[in-house]
Amino acid sequence: MESLRGMSGNNSGLIAWLSSFIESPQDPASAAQSLHLTIEPTLANEGALWFPDLLAGDPTGVLPICLTASILGNVLMGWKVRPLRQISLLPKTEMYKQISFTGLRAFVIVLTCYIGFASFVQGMPTALMLYWITSTNVATLQTWILDNKVFSPVKFNHFIQKSIAFEKPGDEDPFQLKNLR
């Protein structure tokens, strides 16, 4: 992802920031240049979908909304948490563990909304957004296939108990209980 960020012309990535601590004191933009991350010219000349320039941000806001929705789908589908009614019935340590998972999931949901908002406001390059959306959707699809098709529990048809009585009209002992005694 950092290489795609560098090819898009964004020099304020994580690697550039970390390398600024290691190398001599220079600004992060020159640190990214020292990593030889050059802008790919085909990203500006050739487009994808309805975007003619993949280095520019999305002015319509469709991609940040798609990114937020795809990450939310991944989080909501992939993180199984118990309902609060079931959590209260658990032992104390397990209850605290499940509450922490629920809180962490809520934090990730809020963080996802922030990622979508920040990507729109900061004008994240379209190439990076398309990559991130595609990657997240493939991960969500992979999770769904693994959960529902590969590791799905075997479901048996429930046995329905039925009672049948054999009665003859006029028979006083239809189950032949006299013979069993």
Automatic annotation (TrEMBL):
InterPro entries: YidC/ALB3/OXA1/COX18. It is found in: Membrane. GO terms for biological process: mitochondrial respiratory chain complex IV assembly; protein insertion into mitochondrial inner membrane from matrix. One of its GO terms (cellular component) is mitochondrial inner membrane. Keywords: Membrane, Transmembrane, Transmembrane helix. PANTHER family: CYTOCHROME C OXIDASE ASSEMBLY PROTEIN COX18, MITOCHONDRIAL, OXA1. Belongs to the OXA1/ALB3/YidC family. This is Membrane insertase OXA1/ALB3/YidC.
